[in-house]
Design goal:
The protein is mainly α. Among the domains are: about 45 residues; about 45 residues, HLA-dr Antigens Associated Invariant Chain, Chain A (Orthogonal Bundle), CATH 1.10.870.10. It contains seven helices and no strands. The longest helix has about 80 residues. The chain is rod-shaped. The chain starts with a helix and ends in a 15-residue tail after the last helix. It is found in: Secreted. Pfam families: MHC2-interact (PF09307), MHCassoc_trimer (PF08831). GO terms for molecular function: cytokine receptor activity; macrophage migration inhibitory factor binding; MHC class II protein binding.
Length: about 190
């Protein structure tokens, strides 16, 4: 009998222990699942935040790319020779060209532009310099006196070009006046004796 009681006690003890183990095992399983669910949720949230920041930065990256391309294009345009201008700029230059310049025959050929100026006169030197930068520039043939030549220019230029030319003439006149100031003649005054 004593043995039977021991067996019963050991059976009860083992039954109590196994019930406790089952509860602990179920709680451990729930804790593991909760922890795993939290980790998965954190990973998904982290991915969402990363996607948000990448999307936000992509706008700035595209702006930087456009700016970089614009700067590269400007650098290439600066490296081009001055005669290779974009078509749009050449069209506006033709529109603003004075009428006198449009009526004249074509400019001299490139062979004559590379030659030295016709003489040492300022007019020839300036013409040569202007033709070096743009060999298509034209100059009217003005063989009359100053006033008649100015009237001819005024009649053949657009109003805007003539106003610009008048402004230049005014500034040139001021320059010439400043270069050669008129000295007032002083009358001889007797020195005072004291």
């Amino acid at each position: 009998m004593a043995e039977e009681q021991r067996d019963l006690i050991s059976d009860r003890g083992s039954g109590v222990l196994s019930a406790g183990d089952t509860q602990r095992s179920a709680l451990g399983h729930k804790a593991t699942l909760s922890t795993l669910a939290i980790l998965v949720a954190l990973l998904i949230a982290g991915q969402a935040v990363t996607v948000y920041f990448v999307y936000q930065q992509s706008g700035q990256i595209s702006k930087l790319t456009r700016t970089s391309q614009t700067l590269q294009l400007e650098a290439l345009q600066r490296k081009l020779p001055s005669s290779a201008k974009p078509v749009s700029k050449m069209k506006t230059a033709m529109v603003n060209m004075p009428l006198a310049m449009r009526v004249l025959p074509l400019a001299p050929s490139a062979d004559t532009v590379d030659m030295a100026p016709a003489s040492n006169k300022t007019e020839d030197q300036v013409k040569h310099l202007l033709l070096e930068t743009d060999h298509k520039k034209m100059f009217p043939d003005l063989k009359d006196n100053l006033m008649n030549n100015l009237k001819t220019l005024k009649n053949t230029m657009t109003d805007e070009d003539w106003k610009s030319f008048e402004s230049w003439m005014h500034k040139w006149l001021l320059f010439e006046m400043a270069k050669n100031p008129k000295v007032e003649e002083r009358k001889a005054t007797p020195a005072k004796k004291g």
